Amino acid sequence: MHEHGHCQAYLKQISDYVDGELSSEVCASLESHLKECENCRIVVNTLRKTIDLYHDTAENDDLPDKVRSRLFARLNLEDPKQGGIHGS
Amino acid sequence: MNAETVRDEGFVDLLISGDRQAFSELIEQTSAKIYALGMRVLGNEQDAEDMLQETYLKALKALPNFEKRSSINTWLFRIATNEALMLLRKKKTGFNMVAIDQSDEEDEAPFEILDWCCLPEQEMVSAETRTMLNKAADQLSPALRIVFQLRDVDGFSGQETAEILGINEDAVKTRLVRARLKLREELSAYFRDRMEGGVNHA
Ligand SMILES: [Zn+2]
To answer: Residue B29: helix, strand or coil by DSSP?
Structure first.
């Protein structure tokens, strides 16, 4: 493994880097480090993938039907999906 | 979720005027995310549901005074996170969003250096992987978890997240880096096991 002391300094930048939030100067210096450091390249790739995986889980988020109907009942609102059937 | 989903001006005016159909629409667009946030922060269904209901009850009451200084989503999530953090404080005395947990203090060097990005897609989206993702996130301290959820799962910007939590953008950034790095370590360890556990056997 590579010496970590040096790479450590890049960690916060790597997070900003995957967000595209680095100034062009800092970005250039990080990219030149990435060219010669495989470890940091892997950290960049796996960090990106980590974020993607979590982001994708949000697409499957669903409100359970019972929770939904109790919510509408509590608010005295008609649930557009259930046509006025309130929780028992 | 993109924080702009329900930004439409006319829609917001309807909400402020007390239009019930518009409020149902708001619930339609946001409730799954609010509930997921509750599950993430509070960790159980009962508390998440309490938080969900309280959030919309408070929103319904406060809407006539909404001043459009932030987006309706940011405003709603601010109510939701306040509610979640209040419930959390009731359970774990001493929890404070502004103070950071001791265990979060130092950024550790990456330990797992393994490029698992090339694993087959099925491997990444399996139910088992999903369970692991939840478990890994649950291990973060609440202060890190909530920032990660808002920024990386719900897709709020750093500025919006700061607004929602009432902390500054630097604090959001610091926590986000820590959360991301910790999760990356957990995922790398998990995928290392999968890769060594015979995925490549012919
Ligand atoms: Zn490096």
So the answer is: helix
Does the pLDDT at position A61 exceed 70? Answer: yes
Question: What domains sit in chain B, N to C, each tagged with a CATH number?
Answer: 3-95 (1.10.1740.10), 106-201 (1.10.10.10)
Residues with CB under 5 A from ligand 1 (ion): A 7, 37, 40
Q: pTM of the full predicted structure?
A: 0.86
Considering only CB atoms, which residues of chain A are within 8 Å of chain B?
Answer: 1, 4, 7-8, 11-12, 15-16, 21, 39, 42-43, 45-51, 53-58, 61-63, 67-68, 70-72, 74-75, 77-80
ipTM exceeding cut-off 0.95 for this assembly: no
Tokens read off for B9: 């001006």
Alpha-helix runs per DSSP H in chain B: 9-16, 20-42, 45-62, 72-91, 121-125, 127-138, 142-148, 158-165, 169-194
Size of interface A-B (CB pairs under 8 A): 116
Per-residue pLDDT at A2? 46
Nearest residue, CB atoms, A53 vs list B36, B56, B124: B124
What DSSP letter does each residue of B176-187 carry, written as one string?
HHHHHHHHHHHH
Domain ranges of chain A: 7-85
CB B61 within 8 A of CB B82: no
- Is residue A40 within 8 Å of A34, Cβ to Cβ? yes
CB–CB contact B130 A8 (8 Å): no
B173 close to A (CB below 8 A): yes
Tens of pLDDT, residue by residue over B96-129, are 555 554 444 555 667 788 888 888 888 888 889 9
